[in-house]
Amino acid sequence: MFDTLSDRLTSVLQNLRGKGKLTDADIDATAREIRIALLEADVALPVVREFIAHVKERAKGAEVSEALNPAQQVIKIVNEELIGILGGETRRLSLAKTPPTVIMLAGLQGSGKTTLAGKLAMFLKKQGHAPLLVACDLQRPNAVTQLQVVGERAGVQTFAPEPGNGVGDPVDVARRGIDEAKHAQHDIVIVDTAGRLGVDEELMKQAADIRDAVQPDETLFVVDAMIGQDAVSTAEAFRDGVGFTGVVLTKLDGDARGGAALSVREVTGQPILFASNGEKLEDFDTFHPDRMASRILGMGDMLTLIEQAEQAFDQDQAEKAAAKLGTGQLTLEDFLEQMLAVRKMGPIGNLLGMLPGAGQMKDQLANVDDKHLDRLQAIIRGMTPAERADPKMINGSRRSRIAQGSGVSVREVNDLVNRFFEARKMMQQMAGRFGFGGGGSATK
Ligand code: GDP
């Protein structure tokens, strides 16, 4: 699910990489591509419109972050907006103050309600609750037996009407189910209701009658993510006909575009609580808007990296280093500080592994090891403060002393010092060209 959307968004955002500055035209072009990607994934038009408007406004606004480059900033904005349409914070089930908590499931036939009842029961049981399933889907042949089977698999009890009494009254079963739960000390009741193939009056009325009889603490609208644009209209019909407090997305393991399911929260204003991604009872979990957004963005852990960069970024230190850049005054001490700031973010292999496309770079990654950085740090630490501040003074005999003290070869010390001078010279030239820094004279 969301693979195509994910691929599209990833490539749109990757096109931004390497750009030093984004013009309004760049942002407009990116926004257009994102818009197409969302529409092709079946995300509802009003949702797309608002999403794009926010992204554009924020990307063009002065949301300048010192820690991130322009491409990273756009990725961050898109990610945050995506989390926004998915509901923001993770929403947990709200439990009644006086048990039992009543959870009613509503949705079309085939949306996965009965399966969900089992999944939810098992999920809650693992958390120490004692759920009771109540079979109020008396319409679909075998629905009661099916609920009993999933209940057994989940290891919970099921309350069902006695067989052989005709169709029976679902409202009456619901009421008796609640009584049974109170009596047998179940702290949660999950009420499975009947669905139809399409939305109809009778279905809505029955669901509304059950709702009135059991006064649910949560009514969960169960929607099959594979049904495309119909997801939105079905959600609206259930919102108006029965009302619900939360959404459960099912069949996220399918290969449909799924964007409609992403619109449900924005269109109905109700949060997505759970997601199902398979037929087994274990294929189910709490829905986390942030995790889903980063999965859709297909950014690996790029987003984590962005967050860590922001956290590890030390404004003072960076300003000091930037001011020194153009003057040619950058020292090995600054170099060490920068290196330590990067290292704060974790092992370098992990950092690189978080970058998109890193999967294909495994071989190169294997060569970038922390040991190399450790050695560089050891060399700089083996220098006296005076040497770090003025690397020019590091002559031949000092180089042998440093090499010996830090357990490396003289060649490695030479390499480091030479590279440092080259880098400093290059930065100074760049600073001169782009007009930042003080433009002092090169010191080598
Ligand atoms: P109900 O009519 O709403 O009670 O729907 P069911 O629970 O009977 O589910 C309808 C079909 O969808 C069944 O074959 C389930 O096994 C299947 N199903 C339910 N949830 C999922 C899911 O998350 N992924 C997949 N692939 N199938 C599911």
Structural summary, described in words:
With 444 residues, the protein is an alpha/beta fold. It has three domains: 3-85, Four Helix Bundle (Hemerythrin (Met), subunit A), CATH 1.20.120; 101-287, P-loop containing nucleotide triphosphate hydrolases (Rossmann fold); 314-434, 434 Repressor (Amino-terminal Domain) (Orthogonal Bundle). It is 55% helix and 9% strand. It has helices spanning 3-14, 24-40, 45-60, 70-85, 113-126, 143-154, 170-183, 201-214, 230-241, 259-268, 289-297, 302-312, 315-325, 332-343, 348-353, 362-367, 370-381, 385-389, 396-406, 410-434; strands spanning 101-106, 131-136, 157-159, 188-193, 218-224, 246-250, 272-276, 284-286. The chain has an eight-stranded mixed β-sheet, sandwiched between helices. Strand 6, helix 10 (259-268) and strand 7 form a beta-alpha-beta unit. The longest helix has 25 residues, at 410-434. The radius of gyration is 30 Å and the shape is elongated. The chain starts with a helix and ends in a 10-residue tail after the last helix. The model is unreliable at 356-365 and 434-444 (pLDDT under 50). Bound molecules: guanosine-5'-diphosphate. Its main location: cytoplasm. One of its GO terms (molecular function) is GTP binding. It comes from Amycolatopsis endophytica.
